[in-house]
Specification:
With 124 residues, the chain is of the alpha+beta class. Helices cover 23% and strands 17% of the residues. The strands form 2 sheets. A 3-stranded antiparallel sheet has the order 1-2-3.
Length: 124
């Protein structure tokens, strides 16, 4: 049995691609902890963001997928986001990258939002 971080499943990449995100992206990873909120420790292999993000966007009919700039190469026309949607013949949302966003009086940071949920100050 593999421990956290010991094994991943990668897409057969394209090392000739100009986009480094296409060289050998991770699509699945082994994770034991923390236990999944719904399935506890039933599953040990989980899809990566690069694998699941585009599929969920497509299946949910998202018109515009907005991500911060660090995901730009992944969501580029020659990146894994569109490559996977093409390979699966799925609907392709428009992707849009933006810089850090701040809205006065709102909490947008994942770290801060997670702390609020963990302390049961909000649900989500």
């Amino acid at each position: 049995e593999y421990q956290d971080g010991e094994a991943v499943l990668r897409m057969k990449g394209d090392f000739a691609s100009d986009n480094p995100a296409m060289w050998d992206p991770v699509f699945y990873r082994v994770m034991h902890s923390p236990p999944h909120p719904r399935t506890a420790s039933v599953w040990k292999v989980y899809p990566s963001y690069d694998f699941s993000h585009c599929i969920v966007d497509s299946l949910e009919g998202i018109s515009h997928s907005c991500c911060t700039l660090e995901f730009g190469s992944r969501q580029a026309a020659d990146g894994p986001y569109y490559w996977l949607l093409d390979a699966l013949a799925l609907y392709k949302p428009v992707t849009w990258e933006y810089n850090r966003c701040s809205i006065t009086g709102s909490v947008l940071s994942k770290r801060l939002l997670q702390a609020l949920v963990t302390r049961k100050l909000v649900s989500g």
